[in-house]
# Entry
Amino acid sequence: MQLSDIKNPTLKAWLQTWIDLCTPDNVMICDGSQAQYDDLANQMVKAGSFIKLDEPVNSYFVRSDPGDVARVEGRTYICSRKKEDAGPTNNWKDPVEMKAEFNQLFKGAMKGRTLYIIPFSMGPIESPIAKYGIEITDSAYVVINMCIMTRVGLEVFNKIDKGAEFVKCVHSVGAPLADGQADVPWPCAPMDNKYITHFPETREIISFGSGYGGNALLGKKCFALRIASVQARDEGWLAEHMLILKLTNPAGVVRYIAAAFPSACGKTNLAMMEPTIPGWKVETIGDDIAWMKFGEDGQLYAINPENGFFGVAPGTSMHSNPNAMRTVNRGNSIFTNAAITIDGKVWWEDHDANPEFLIDWLRRPWSKGCGRKAAHPNARFTTPAAQCPVIAPEWEDPKGVPISAFLFGGRRKTVVPLVNEALDWEHGVFMGATMASEMTAAAVGVLGQLRFDPFAMLPFCGYNMGDYFKHWLKIGAYKGAKLPKIYYVNWFRKNDDGKWLWPGYGENSRVLKWIFERCEGTAACKQTAIGNLPAEGSLDLKGLKVPAEDQALLLGVDTEGWKALLPQIEDHFAKFGDRLPAELHKQLEALKKRLG
Ligand code: O2Y
Ligand code: MN
# Structure
C-alpha cells in the first residue's frame, strides 16, 4: 500500500502535514505482515542495531543508548487547554506553545530516515471496546515492537474510512542524519530535549527524542492510559492500569479479577501465576492495562487492549514467573538492554542460567562475581501474548470478560493487612485513592513515609486526578450496575526483624481463593474499622507454615498504625483542593471515627 492509496481526507491531510514538516527520505506504510516485520528486523541487524539470537527462534537482542532506558516522567506532559485540567499530579504545558515548539523541533527531524505509518488497533479490531490509532515514527525498533504490542493492520484504515475515531500519534527519535552521516545503533535526543506530550482535547500524542518503551510505543501508556482515561471519562467507561486474570475453582466455576498495582510490583507475575492450592487454575487475559465498559446486563466487561507483554526482564525466572519464561522461550521476542552470553543467549539478573562470562548491556565484558549488574534494571522483553501457555482462550473475546472483583495494592511492610474487602463502592474508591507504597530507605529520613499512587495511575491519568476520583464514584452510581467487589491486598508485609510474613508468588492464590469465595458468597469475613477481613479459618492456609503470631499480623487491624497514617492521607488529599470529591473527605472522617 502507498501513501496515495489513503483516501480519508482528515487522515491524508494530517499525514501530509507531518511528512512536509519532518522531510523524511522515505515513507512506508506498515501492514502488520510477517514479511515486513522480518524485513525490518533484517535491516536492523545489517545496521548493527539488532543481534539475531540463535535461541529463542526469531528473536532479537538490542541495546539502547545509556541515556534512554526508561519512561521519563519528568519529560511527560499533559497539554490540556487549562492547566487545572491536568491537575496537581501531571506536568503541564500550554498546547499552543507546545505545538509551536514542536514546529521547530520536528522541522527536518526525519531527514535521512524513513517515516513509518503504523495503523493499529488497541483491542481486538471488531470489539466494541477497541479503539484505533495511527502512529507516525522514524524508528524501525518502534515499528517492530508495535507489531508485537498492538494489532497492526491495514483493516484499521477501513475502520477510519467508515468514520471510526483515531488517536493521532507522532513519534521521532529526534536525530536527523546530515548527508553522508553514519547512523548510531540507538539514535535519540539528549534528556532535556525529550518530550512525551498528550493533547487530551484533540486526542493527540506527540513524542520527541526517546526511542524507549512507554515513551515511544505510543499505543501503551500514552494512548491506552493517558488519552484513553480522558475518553473513558467523557464516554462513561474505565481505562485502568490493571492486569486481568481468570480464576477457575475445582468445580469449574470461573471469575475474572482486575488488579491495579504500581509499576514494578509484580503485575506480570500475578497475571500468569501458578496457584499452589490444588484444583485451582489461573489464566491470563492481560498483564498491564484493562479497558472496561458496562454491558446491557449491568456487568463491567473488560478487554486487554494490548497484544503482547513488555515485561521487566531482571527478576523474571522459572521460580518467579515460569509462564513468562515459557512465553519468551517460544521466540518471536525482542530483548532490550539485557546481557548476552558468549554463545549468543540472553541473560539478566535472577535468570535461571548461570553463566561465568557475559557481555553486559553496556557492551563491557562481565564475569560472575564482578559486583556489577549485567542487565539494566529496566531491561525488557517484548513478546506476543498469544504465546503465553496460560493465556485464556477467551482473551480476545470482542465483548470482553465480566469482572467480579478489583484488587488494589502496593508495597507495605507495615500496618496494611494481607487482604481487606471494601465495605461498599465508595469505601473501595477511597482505598484506590489512598493506594501507596512505603518509600525505600534509599532516601534518608523518609522511612515510614508513603508514596501515594492512586489506582496505580499517578503517572498515567491524562486529566485532573480529583476528577478521576469523581469518575470512579460516578461509575458506582451507574443505573442497574452489578459492581465488582473491591479489595486491598498486600503481599509485602514484614515483621520487626525485616522477614517477609507472607511467602507470595503461587501462595497468593490462597488470597485469590478467599476473594473468589466472597464473590460466590461462601467465605466468611469479620467486619472491622478498616474493612472486611477474613474470618477465622476462612482463608485457606492448609499446608502452609505461617506461625500464629504472623497470621495475627497479616490478618489483624493495627489500630495505632492506621491512626498514624491518617495525617499522611489528609496531606495527600489536600493536594487536590476543591477537585477532591466530598465523598472521599467523608470516607476519611468515617475511617477516623471507626478507628476511635
Ligand atoms: O520504562 C518503560 O518504558 C516501560 S514502563 C512499563 C512497561 C510495561 C508495563 N508497565 C510499565 C509501567 O511503568 O507501569
Ligand atoms: Mn504498567
Notes: The chain has a mean pLDDT of 97. The two ends are 69 Å apart (CA to CA).
